[in-house]
Amino acid sequence: MAHISIIGSGNMGQAISGLVAKGGHTVELVGSADGGTAVTGDIVVLAVPYPKVAEVIAERGAQLAGKVVVDITNPLNFETFDGLTVPADGSAAAEIAAALPGSTVLKAFNTNFAGTLVAGSVGGAPTTVLIAGDDADAKALLAGVVGAAGLRAVDAGGLNRARELESIGFLQITLAAGEKVSWTGGFAVAQ
Amino acid sequence: MAHISIIGSGNMGQAISGLVAKGGHTVELVGSADGGTAVTGDIVVLAVPYPKVAEVIAERGAQLAGKVVVDITNPLNFETFDGLTVPADGSAAAEIAAALPGSTVLKAFNTNFAGTLVAGSVGGAPTTVLIAGDDADAKALLAGVVGAAGLRAVDAGGLNRARELESIGFLQITLAAGEKVSWTGGFAVAQ
Known about the structure:
- Two copies of one chain form a homodimer.
- The first copy, chain A, is an alpha/beta fold.
- The first copy, chain A, has one domain: Rossmann fold (3-Layer(aba) Sandwich), CATH 3.40.50.720.
- Helix content of chain A is 37%, strand content 23%.
- The first copy, chain A, has helices spanning 11-22, 50-64, 92-99, 114-119, 136-148, 162-177, and strands spanning 3-7, 26-30, 43-46, 68-71, 104-107, 121-122, 125-126, 128-133, 152-157, 186-190.
- In chain A, β4 (68-71), α3 and β5 (104-107) form a beta-alpha-beta unit.
- The two termini of chain A are 28 Å apart.
- The A-B interface holds A 82, 87-89, 122-125, 154-157, 160-161, 163-165, 167-168, 170-171, 174-175, 178, 180-182, 185-191 and B 82, 87-89, 122-125, 154-157, 160-161, 163-165, 167-168, 170-171, 174-175, 178, 180-182, 185-191.
- β10 of chain A pairs antiparallel with β10 (186-190) of chain B, so a sheet runs across the interface.
């Protein structure tokens, strides 16, 4: 059984917390302001908006060493709503991995709206969590947690594929904001 | 009724040709080597691999002036299979638009596998064609052609969103090549 810590109790933190518990794994949900309490999970999900991640890392970087850290962010430029705040050839995940050299960083959940994680389906198909990362064991561990909740996990490749996952997350948010898809819809993955 | 020319008679050219005809519009399918025959369509689909596009533009650039030109390419680096051959902050569509200043360039179909255009569905949902471009009338014209064939068209934003569409196309190809999804599956868009 995996033990998961989730930092950030917004929509996404709550939704991921729910699916972890649904799959029979244990979860602790920690408010992002609660920096004093050390996280205990083998997997730690950073479920805070991208601009808050640096703060979490500053407070908890040492705690995160040796752990699998899951980046779920979409680093949108919310002023222009027309691009990302990370380098064009990089990703939020790459920035986080550089800031946490002692952790194993995965990108996941950023292409899933919270509602599709709660529902377990999108457009009639099981919700698929795309996971990118350079460590196969860490990806398998997270995929097991996702699968236990009845969702599908797909290995999207190395951590450099986070760039594409963040493009998908960004486009999906613009489509929902423009009412082209609903916040319970968006991209599904057909096998 | 729209009249569409398709340059390139591979899988994608044939699939798009089929859906145009299915929707009751007229289509001419032109081999990419047939440079001598002027295209007659109001919409011209460049259904050749990205490395061939420059050749088509060199031969036909003047013919394409005043027309809606649809770029369907995924400019993968087929040597590394690990990135695109266009600038990280750009897109194939942006390169094509720069090379064809007299044409109205749209990005479309690059996130659809040919099989899903033929079937009209992916994962049980109607196949959705994401269209990016800066000209609303041109997008509406193409969306009408797509819709007439029973597929769904979604306006994905300005031509700068081609960057994200090319990220999706790239990731989808790597997922299919890695047997994570089939060539008749991939990304579906749930409303």
